[in-house]
Amino acid sequence: MSWFEYSQCVLNxxxxxxxxxxxxxxxxxxWLSPPERLQLLRWCRQQLKRKGRLHPSG
Length: 58
Prior knowledge:
mainly alpha, 3 helices
């Protein structure tokens, strides 16, 4: 499993709580390469829009 895939799994498990989601996202971004960071941020935006639970800018 790549760091990117691991990051997706972690964020999927904590997306119920905005504060926890942000905390985990910050930690995970440290481990990813710059291209993977962009990919993860795009994935987050797509997931958050699709689920309608959290607002990425808020």
